[in-house]
Specification:
alpha/beta, Deoxyhypusine Synthase, 13 helices, 11 strands, 47% helix
């Protein structure tokens, strides 16, 4: 067996993120090497012109500054399809109009409740910055959209909201805006599981013909998958967005490039903790695909990985 020596990381003034990540690979150190391998795979995926590139992630990270990293991937057209959860729409829209705030994990949650503040990890979200502002802003937009049509897929409905953001001063910070601007579809298979979906339901109370056509989304995904020569995915966390991404890719023989970023363990059989090797058994990832599972918090891992990726391309 050819032996490769472990090399120390050399920290110097002016070291770029990409240079640091390359040193992390040479360091041989545990998750550091996985992170560096993930950047290599993402670079291959982005540069492969015949590859349909998926991005999936859960909503929680959009309540944090990591929203800016996701936005850059969409703004720079480094992904072709986004699959996420309803809360992504909630947080992305709410933060256009109001601020979220620094908090802490050990806050008194009963006290927060009595003060009308919601806690998401160590992020504080006052009611007026979430449900109240979404109702105030979304209902007039839904009324305008209804005039045009009463039946929408999640992709088309989200693009319509993106168009309505054109006059907002903070639009450039929005994932939804850049998805609309660059015509990158966002699919939300669990569209009713959040404030955005609840606002749609509220509008439906007086407009019973206003409906969400989820099967139109599925047909769009089918067309994208079956026309793809290759496919790749950056999959953050787990849940419905992760599963929907790998589920559809099994129908083309599996993903060719895959990077998982997760904090979950696999011992309980959860999808969130399932490693890439498990998906190979289902045919959701190809047997010889470039793949890695990076263990760690996406709010730490993604800024490092995507910064290095942007420097390379």
């Amino acid at each position: 067996m050819k032996r490769k020596p472990v090399k120390d990381i050399q920290l110097k003034k002016g070291t770029t993120t990409d240079e640091l990540v390359e040193q992390m690979f040479e360091s041989g150190g545990f998750t550091a090497k996985k992170l560096a391998t993930g950047v290599d795979i993402l670079e291959k995926m982005v540069k492969d012109k015949g590859c349909v590139r998926f991005l999936s992630f859960p909503a929680c990270i959009i309540s944090t500054g990591t929203r800016g990293v996701i936005k850059e991937l969409v703004k720079k057209k480094l992904v072709d399809i986004v699959i996420t959860t309803c809360g992504t729409l909630d947080h992305d829209l709410a933060r256009i109009w109001e601020d979220y705030y620094h908090g802490h994990f050990m806050a008194d949650d009963a006290e927060l409740y009595n003060k009308g503040v919601n806690r998401l990890g160590n992020i504080f979200i006052p009611n007026e910055c979430y449900g109240k502002i979404l109702e105030k802003k979304m209902q007039p937009i839904l009324a305008e959209i209804y005039k045009e049509n009463s039946k929408w897929s999640t992709k088309d409905l989200i693009w319509k909201f993106g168009k309505h953001l054109e006059k907002e001063k903070n639009k450039d910070e929005s994932i939804i805006y850049w998805a609309y601007k660059n015509k990158i579809p966002i699919y939300v298979p669990g569209i009713t599981d959040g404030a955005f979906g609840s606002q749609v339901w509220m509008y439906y109370q007086n407009h019973r013909d206003f409906t969400i056509d989820l099967l139109k989304d599925e047909q769009d995904l089918s067309d994208a998958i079956f026309d793809a020569k290759k496919s790749g995915a950056l999959i953050i966390g787990g849940g419905i967005s992760k599963h929907h991404t790998i589920w559809w890719n099994q129908f083309k023989g599996g993903l060719d490039y895959v990077v998982y970023v997760t904090t979950a363990a696999e011992y309980d059989g959860s999808l969130s903790g399932a490693q890439t090797r498990e998906a190979i058994s289902w045919g959701k990832i190809k047997e010889h695909a470039d793949n890695v599972t990076v263990d760690g918090d996406a709010t730490v891992m993604l800024p490092l990985m995507i910064s290095a990726l942007l420097e390379r391309i």
